[in-house]
Design a protein that fits this description.
Elements (H helix, E strand, L loop, with lengths): L4 E3 L14 E7 L11 H11 L3 E7 L3 H10 L4 E10 L2 E6 L11 H9 L4 E4 L12 H7 L3 H12 L4 E6 L6 H11 L4 E4 L11 E5 L6 H7 L4 E4 L4 H16 L21
Parallel strand pairs: 1-10, 2-3, 3-4, 6-7, 7-8
Antiparallel strand pairs: 2-9, 4-5, 5-6, 9-10
Helix pairs in contact: 1-2, 4-5
Length: 270
């Protein structure tokens, strides 16, 4: 499979308004996540300003923020209900969900739980050693003896539908390694902001060659995706979790409107 076209956001002509393309950010956190400050309504406003057509809210271990955003979205912007799920093998992303997938299952069980809802399975920031990544075991294998790597890589590739080959928050060589992994295993790649604040939204995103509303329509478009490869600043990456902690210490946590107290799990480690 040819590698997806990769271009920076300021070099891609978005074309006339109404052109039959989709502009998507498939990995975004709202204030329902333990480490995000982004109010769902403000995310929607910013997404419209940027010209995004689709926005996946993928909070950690919960979908309340995504459901709230979908209620508020209205016409012209499709909110995809998603979740970033910590499996026992690392993080996976589920898209097009209606129920939260519990953490702690292994990667195969997590993928099965996503697909049981008709969802799509994504592999986020797979080689970022600073985070719990679904590819951490593959990353260790790639750096280890050659004879031990291929089985683990194949196992991981077999359970996902796409790979996040550019994550705006990824460190060092994580993105090039993710792109190489996707190419070797014939998997489509996407670029995502992994936004934890409104200012990060859309800094990296994916352009698709047509409209879509369903999981299967999205899957059909992904192989020809164009990737917009901006990066979040180090200041923003450091500032967001610190600000969230300060809010908690002040007794003023950001709570998603409409979420019942205690309906989500407590905070987890970053």
């Amino acid at each position: 499979m040819d590698e997806p076209a990769v271009r920076r956001a300021d070099t891609l002509d978005r074309g006339p308004v109404g052109a039959a393309r989709s502009f998507v950010d498939l990995h975004v956190h709202s204030s329902a996540s333990f480490d995000s400050l982004a109010d769902p309504q403000k995310l929607l406003r910013r997404a419209r300003q940027l010209g995004l057509t689709h926005l996946a809210i993928t909070d950690h271990e919960r979908i309340s923020g995504a459901l709230r955003a979908r209620e508020l979205a209205g016409h012209g912007l499709q909110v995809i209900v998603g979740e970033e799920i910590r499996s026992s093998d690392g993080d996976l992303i589920g898209l097009f969900l209606e129920e939260a997938v519990p953490p702690g299952l292994d990667a195969t069980q997590t993928a099965e739980a996503i697909r049981a809802q008709g969802g799509i399975v994504g592999l986020p920031h797979p080689f970022d050693s600073f985070r719990s990544s679904g590819g951490n075991r593959a990353g260790r294998a790639e750096g280890g003896p050659a004879e031990s790597s291929e089985g683990l890589l194949a196992d991981l590739a077999a359970i996902v539908d796409y790979v996040e080959t550019h994550n705006a928050r990824a460190y060092r060589d994580a993105n090039p390694r993710a792109a190489g992994f996707a190419a070797r295993h014939g998997l489509p790649g996407v670029a995502s902001s992994d936004a934890h604040s409104v200012m990060e939204l859309g800094v990296a995103s994916t352009v698709l060659g047509g409209p879509f509303t369903t999981a299967q329509e999205l899957l059909a478009l992904l192989p020809e995706a164009q990737l917009l490869t901006g990066r979040a600043s180090y200041f923003v990456r450091l500032w967001t979790p610190i600000a969230k902690v300060v809010q908690r210490l002040r007794g003023n946590p950001r709570v998603v409107p409409g979420r019942a107290p205690g309906s989500d799990e407590g905070p987890r480690e970053p």
